[in-house]
Write a structure and sequence with these properties.
Strand content: 15-25%
Number of domains: 1
Radius of gyration: 18 Å
Number of strands: 4
Amino acid sequence: MEAGSVYDGEGVAERARTATLDIFATDESASVQATMFKMGQRVIAENAGVEAVTYALPNKHYIPVEMKYIGVDNTTPANADVFAPVAAPSGLISATISRQ
């Protein structure tokens, strides 16, 4: 049985999980969509039997906390370090990455 073939379900699942966690945890991407694309590309590259990969992630926002009252500029994007999460997701971002 060839690794990544349609008959290698457990191997495919493990490689997909590893690729997803590795890239999601370390990617310096500016967007969730770009990160999902990289994750899907790697899953497809490592598994010949995988034709398409679909991800769906919540669109969560984190708002910079206003801190000028203590003399800290935390609202300029380059300076923002402290963020408050919004309680509910604003939607669901999904992507399907497939072979050509």
